[in-house]
């Protein structure tokens, strides 16, 4: 008789027998299995910064809408040959928002200001600083090309042109771009709601107790406010799920509630294989989540899975590992759940200011920052409990699984936190 495997119904499940997995495998598995889980709505564009476009945006209007002057000066029909030239001015002027209705005859010029539509008969503008004016006559030196200091209608954006694709997260400057292109409303994804849950009997919420009243075994919950702030900065709706004790029922109850309130959950702590590692125990016993042991430092125990259909990212408890795993794994996956594009962190090759011998086997990430000499410095300790190094750093130096001996001046890959 054939005995079938246990039904896992788990989008994160690895093939049977696979235990340690390289980071790139973990990332590509995540990438393959994530799809948007949020609804859509239409928003006025000025309220849409930080939201993800759910439909491509298409220009409704040329930008600029008409040929206009790039400078304050005098407009006429170009070109002007080499040498001095004199022109009579027409009466009146062309200003931004106050066009000149008449025609400027060949050989004459008109006073024109920046942004003004070019009147009929004008295709070139000379800068006022290059002009001598006496009464209603001007003189300046050529040569001046036809089209000098002119902005052409539609030279930036043409009506009907695609502007930004679905899945693009709107930056502040995108709002300006869309508005200038005549767009008033955009279809966006609802914000992804991401819950953050801490775990551990020793972990105390900041604000619940004064430091001097805590026993030496207690530690403040650093992960939860840190991760909530990071999620908010990325444009997600961060939901505080509190801190569970090391009692399985407490954890189960909070995850059950989370499943009705949020689209995804980040937990930290309790994912190793110790007696009090209840997140992983819950996964193991109730079979709804799968632990991945990813070959990275800091980090490794990372539990990924579904709880009642909601993706759970079970992060390590150490703040450094929790933060780094959030950047590396949760960040790109959450973006896809939110309707956005998978994100490859931005990286730069920068000369190292440090020496390091790295063993083969695991990918490794050092807390790092760019020094005043333009080289990248690494934090003095690699201990994953050293949260001071997170604050000190502005990014990570990334090493792949290979063995490596870095000496000062060697190029290394720097990933700024802002590039995740
Ligand atoms: P665990 O994975 O639960 O064994 O936790 C690993 C380490 O991270 C332990 O030293 C915990 O005390 C610490 N830790 C767990 N959760 C937090 C948290 N929310 N804030 C700060 N440290 C934590
Ligand atoms: Mg714990």
General description of the model:
By secondary structure, this protein is α/β, with parallel strands linked by helices. The protein folds into four domains: 20-38 and 191-337, MoaB/Mog-like domain (Molybdenum Cofactor Biosythetic Enzyme, Chain A, 3-Layer(aba) Sandwich), CATH 3.40.980.10; 40-61 and 157-189, Molybdopterin biosynthesis moea protein, domain 2 (Alpha-Beta Complex), CATH 3.90.105; 68-151, Molybdopterin biosynthesis moeA protein, domain 3 (Beta Complex), CATH 2.170.190; 348-419, MoeA, C-terminal, domain IV (Beta-clip, Beta Barrel). The protein has seven helices and 29 strands. The strands form eight sheets. It has a seven-stranded mixed beta sheet, with helices on both faces. Strands 8-5-7-6-10-9 form a six-stranded mixed beta sheet, with no helix packed on it. A hairpin with a 2-residue loop joins strand 9 (132-134) and strand 10. Helix 1 (23-33) packs parallel to helix 6. It is elongated, with a radius of gyration of 30 Å. The two termini are 50 Å apart. Adenosine monophosphate binds at residues 198, 200, 202-203, 219, 221-224, 268-272, 316-319.
Bound ions, cofactors and other small molecules, one mention each = adenosine monophosphate, magnesium ion
Envelope shape? elongated
CATH class of the largest domain: Alpha Beta
List the uncertain runs. none
Strand order of the largest sheet: 1-19-21-22-18-14-17
- How would you state the average pLDDT, rounded? 93
Mind telling me the C-alpha Rg?
30 Å
Q: Which topology of the largest domain does CATH recognise?
A: Molybdenum Cofactor Biosythetic Enzyme, Chain A
Task: Please describe the biggest sheet, giving its number of strands, its sense, and whether it closes into a barrel.
Answer: 7 strands, mixed
- DSSP helical segment count: 7
CATH architecture of the largest domain: 3-Layer(aba) Sandwich
Strand residue content: 25-35%
What's the number of extended β-strand segments? 29
Q: Tell me the number of structural domains.
A: 4
Question: How many angstroms separate the termini?
Answer: 50 Å
Question: Structural class of the secondary structure composition?
Answer: alpha/beta
